[in-house]
Amino acid sequence: MILAGGIGGGVASEAMAQGVWTILKHEGRDYLTLREIGAFYRLGTLERSLNQFSLRLGAASLRGHADSQEFYISRLKFILSYPIREIAGELCMSRMDLVKLVEPVLRPGRIPSAGRVDTVILDAGHGGSDSGAVGRLGAEKEFTLDVAFRARTELLKAGFQVFLTRSRDEFVPLEERSRFANRFEGGNALFISIHFNSSGWGTGVETFTLAPQGVPSMMSDGPMVSDLVRCPGNARDAENMALATATHASVVLRAKLPDRGIKRARFFVIRETVLPSVLLEGGFISNPEEIRRIASGEYRQQLAGGILEAVQNYRRAVSSRSG
Ligand SMILES: [Zn+2]
Q: CA-CA distances (angstroms) from residue 165 to 124, 175, 177, 241, 244?
């Protein structure tokens, strides 16, 4: 009965008390059966057809596919750190994904370290000599700053304190951005980094949250020794995932672009910042269709509205006792 090992205290102790988990070893990792996960969260019975499965209860559902990392929680797309596997005839999820993803998403109100939120640090990606991605209709550094300004206006109107890591077209090193944000440690602050993507005809919105210790970044070619190092931001693993969920849900809904999912990475600013942090990629500057949207004030206003809604929803989620 082994949900121990320093991860997932809450789930571990409850589950052990109830004695519900069967742990299966696969590829050197612990896996748990979706049947038992469904029972634990009272999600109803597992429906399975071929390799697809779903678990439902009212509005909440978990949905996925054997041998796939794509996973849906109530229609929101997540990329698991490890694929769903069939082991001994049972569909199973890695313990890491259960503890670091499913638990904080389904029960954000139980994140012990999540505090009040009254302050938001907005980080407009790039700036000055670093233009970021450059498209036909403008550069990433201009669009990120504009979204930060618009989001600041929305957040101020709603009563939040807002600070920007840059407020003009200047180069601010990544270390400087995290150092600035970390001055708010112990306060009630969140950190939201705003970027746009670049990769040919790539399309859609994606949200990055810090990879837990031991989990490979989805932006690297494979596992690296540095994956094993605990980063400062790992202190907020659960809040990071709850914030990514709130951010992605609001932004995808408003952007009306394809949903690329919530992913894991170790980008500097989310790795080194000790506040609950997220990095949003609000569309592809390299895509000739998408750049037209990104270059419109209307679209950037939708992203800003999404950021406000995300902060409000995150605050509500972590303070709910029902979660
Ligand atoms: Zn960028």
A: 7, 11, 6, 22, 20
Q: Which residues contact 220 (CB under 8 A, 6 or more apart)?
A: none
Distance 132 CA to ligand 1 centre (A): 5
Express each pLDDT in 53-66 by its tens digit: 887 766 678 999 99
CATH of 119-319, one of 3.30.420.270, 3.30.70.330, 3.40.630.40, 2.60.120.10: 3.40.630.40
**Exposed, middle or buried, 113 (CB in 10 Å: 0-12/13-18/19+)?**
exposed
Q: Give the pLDDT band of residue 321 (cuts 50, 70, 90).
A: low
Q: Domain 9-106 class? A: alpha beta
Dihedral-angle region of residue 38 (phi above 0 means left; psi in -120 to 50 means alpha; beta otherwise): alpha
DSSP state of 89: T
Question: Under a CB-based contact definition with an 8 Å cutoff, are residues 163 and 122 in contact?
Answer: yes
Tell me, in angstroms, the distance from the centre of ligand 1 to residue 268's CA.
12
Would you list the domain boundaries of the chain? 9-106, 119-319
pLDDT digits (tens, 9 = 90+) for 173-231: 999 999 999 999 988 999 999 999 999 899 999 999 999 999 999 988 788 888 899 99
**Nearest-angstrom CA–CA distance, 94 and 37:** 11
Distance 297 CA to ligand 1 centre (A): 19
Distance between CA atoms of residues 97 and 215, nearest Å: 10
Predicted model pTM = 0.93
CB 295 within 8 A of CB 142: no
Ligand 1 centre distance from Cα of residue 140 (Å): 7
Q: Which of 51-60, 87-96, 195-204, 263-272 comes out lowest in average pLDDT?
A: 51-60
Query: From the CA of 91, how far away is ligand 1's center (Å)?
Result: 37
Q: Kindly give the distance from the C-alpha atom of residue 49 to the centroid of ligand 1, in angstroms, as a whole number.
A: 40
pLDDT bucket at 14, cuts 50 / 70 / 90:
low
